[in-house]
Specification:
With 197 residues, this protein is mainly alpha-helical. It is built from six helices and no strands. Helices cover 79% and strands 0% of the residues.
Length: 197
């Protein structure tokens, strides 16, 4: 009877020290694997966020920011340039006026020349950074129309394009482009804030 109790006592007492020695390396191994996985996934996530941040900065600094500034400068100059013509004709179009063979006074010519120069800079900016235009409407509709208008206005100003107004009636500048550019810039800035939070 004493022997049976002793056997049961030995069977029920568990050698926790041996068990801990045996299981500890396995637990530590799993913990190390989990920590490595966590570090790797965290590092990958940070790298993706950094790449996204850099991509947004590139879009803002190399395309949207400069293009918006050029558009604002051009708009201010154009308001001064067309003021007297708009009072006579609310539908005044510089391109149509030039196609008719009409001319401007010296001040107007100077302003128009600068507006056309800004348009040429915009064309180069568009050409050099077309891959950064990440909005379908801008890329496929508004910017091609704006770019075409810059070219036609320059050709008409230089006297290389005269008459045939009906052919160019749909070539006016897409005024809605400015709101669309600002909208896209704001979206990218908000995305940047979210990544930096």
């Amino acid at each position: 009877m004493v022997l049976l109790i002793q056997c049961q006592s030995e069977a029920s007492s568990f050698d926790w020290m041996s068990f801990a020695k045996d299981i500890a390396p396995i637990v530590i191994g799993f913990a190390a694997l989990f920590f490595s996985w966590y570090q790797l996934s965290s590092s990958e996530r940070q790298k993706k966020e950094e790449n996204k941040r850099n991509e947004i900065y590139k879009k803002l600094n190399d395309f949207y920011g400069p293009y918006i500034q050029l558009r604002k400068k051009s708009y201010i100059l154009y308001q001064k340039f067309q003021k007297k013509y708009r009072t006579k004709d609310s539908n005044f179009s510089t391109l149509k006026y030039l196609l008719k063979g009409e001319s401007f006074d010296e001040n107007e010519k100077a302003l128009l020349k600068e507006i056309i120069n800004i348009g040429t800079i915009c064309e180069k900016l568009i050409h050099d950074n077309a891959g950064l235009i990440d909005d379908d409407d801008l890329r496929n509709n508004l910017i091609p129309k704006a770019s075409t208008h810059y070219l036609l206005l320059r050709l008409a100003y230089e006297g290389n394009l005269v008459g045939d107004m009906e052919n160019f009636i749909d070539s006016s500048f897409p005024v809605e482009i400015d709101a669309k550019l600002e909208e896209r810039k704001t979206f990218l800035e908000n995305e940047l804030k979210s990544l930096n939070a």
